[in-house]
Amino acid sequence: MLYTHLHLSTRLARDTRLIREKLAATQGSAIAINVLVMNLEKLLELLFVLVAFWSRVLLGTEVADARESAACGYRVVPA
Question: Among residues of the chain, what percentage have pLDDT more than 70?
């Protein structure tokens, strides 16, 4: 009986240690995923700003028209 009780308590201690180790690994993975998602969010925001800026520079002529009209002293107002 004593051997069985000792064996069970040793096994329980080992299983508890394994659970704690898995929990620590899981927490580390969760933290790493959170950092990855935050970095991806910042990169996507930067990508959006760059695409919006370059699309406006390359495709938008209204900015150039506004600068030219401001330099001439008059503004073109759409009818």
Answer: 48
- Global pTM value: 0.43
Alpha carbon separation from 35 to 17, 31, 41 (Å, rounded): 27, 6, 10
Nearest alpha-carbon partner for 44 in 54, 34, 36: 36
CA distance linking residue 42 with residue 23, whole number of Å:
29
* Spatial CA neighbour of 66 closest among 78, 52, 51: 78
Cβ partners under 8 Å of residue 63, min gap 6: 56, 57
- In degrees and rounded to multiples of 5, residue 67 shows phi and psi of -65, -40
